[in-house]
Amino acid sequence: MSKLKTVIVGTNHAGIAAANTLLDNYPDQEVVMIDRNTNLSYLGCGTALWVGRQIESYENLFYTNKEAFEAKGAKIYMETTVERIDFDKKVVYCKKHDGTELTESYDKLILATGSAPINPDIPGRELKNVEFLKLFQDGQTVDAAMAKAEVKTVAVIGAGYIGVEIAEAAKRRGKNVLLFDAAERCLPNYYDQWFTDDMDKVLADNGIELHYNELAKEYKGSEQVETLVTDKGEYAVDLVINAIGFRPNNGLGKDHLELFANGAYLVDLHQQTSDPDVYAVGDCSTIFSNAVQQTTYIALATNAVRSGIVAAHNVGGTALESIGVQGSNGISIFGYHMVSTGLTVQESEKLGLKVKHTEFEDLQKPGFMKENNSVKIRIVYEEESRRIVGAQMASYEDISMGIHMFSLAIEEKVTIDKLKLLDIFFLPHFNQPYNYITMAALSAE
């Protein structure tokens, strides 16, 4: 019996999850993996930890390698660029780094091409020391720049997760750090202002100079960047790190496959595109939001892994639907932890959802406990149905596990009223007898 052939384009989190699922569960599958990079499986979320010397080296940020897939029977091409795909003939046309051309036919195709950094057409962007953070090689370049004594002032453009994290890393390396964003605060896509005001204070208290409502307009310098020009002033800088955001990498299929509003490949709950023989996973594809109850775009590594698993099972012959996601996420800066899932109040209003919210702030543990910190929580719920659609939490305590409960609550359409008398245990080592989750729920209108 001849094997069915699946070609996977892209071998980071989504592509790796798809390949492992096929190789581990479907012996009738011939798997071909193609990637233009020199490496695979890099955990980009650890770049700031490494650059900021919170971990000693980058080696453990790679969790697998080419040899592991070859041992499972996959054919894998690294440093190989897919130049085009003939979707009618089901052929992938590639070029290796040495110029050699090759083709691979397929029965099924999984696109795991990820995302690319947004690179605005700003004068001077070709200067040296104007960098991005996406690939392992980008991290190496930024790390090498940070090691130079002459690099004293670092400008970070973009106060999302990557921008805030690399700003902390640069400060930990002893640099003067300026953080810019066109928005009025940091992390606006994940947290309401009640939370981001605290994070902004954490950043400022640790010596990071905040420049919000300020738009980068030009980079000046002879060979390398020397000045950042914004709509509000000019700043002497030695290194610029762009962390503005990402766009779906849709170049291979944008003229053949149906696209979402932002250019991502539009997929169903099986990760299947408008071409029944083509699946798309990870940052290049859409995903279903249980909070909004509709298709959306949420680029997170955890979502990428789940989508790769779902696509592979369907390709392998097991009908499997995605259960949707909540977009759960977290950040820890100078020891201050913030976690969220689902929608904020601000995002809900943008989407036209009528929501209410309840919030509470208290000590994590009883006041007599010596090691203690304040905790903030906000729960967002739909006004009419009263189903929970989002939650945010913050503290110097590790309160991260609590957000998983809210993620499940959103998935299962739990109402705020159901949460009011939830059985939450009490022990002074962990929490208060009137738990902040309970108190927030009881405070709801």
TrEMBL record:
Catalytic activity: 2 NADH + O2 + 2 H(+) = 2 NAD(+) + 2 H2O
Record's keyword terms, sorted: FAD, Flavoprotein, NAD, Oxidation, Oxidoreductase, Redox-active center
Residue ranges constituting the FAD/NAD(P)-binding domain according to the UniProt record: 5-308
EC number annotated for this UniProt entry: 1.6.3.4
InterPro entries to which the protein is assigned, alphabetical: FAD-bd_OxRdtase, FAD/NAD-bd_sf, FAD/NAD-binding_dom, FAD/NAD-linked_Rdtase_dimer_sf, NOXase, Pyr_nucl-diS_OxRdtase_dimer
Cofactor(s), names only, from the UniProt record: FAD
UniProt key word Flavoprotein: yes
Enzyme superclass (EC): oxidoreductase
Domain Pyridine nucleotide-disulphide oxidoreductase dimerisation residue range list: 336-431
Recorded family membership: Belongs to the class-III pyridine nucleotide-disulfide oxidoreductase family.
Listed name of the protein: NADH oxidase
Originating species: Enterococcus wangshanyuanii
Gene: noxE
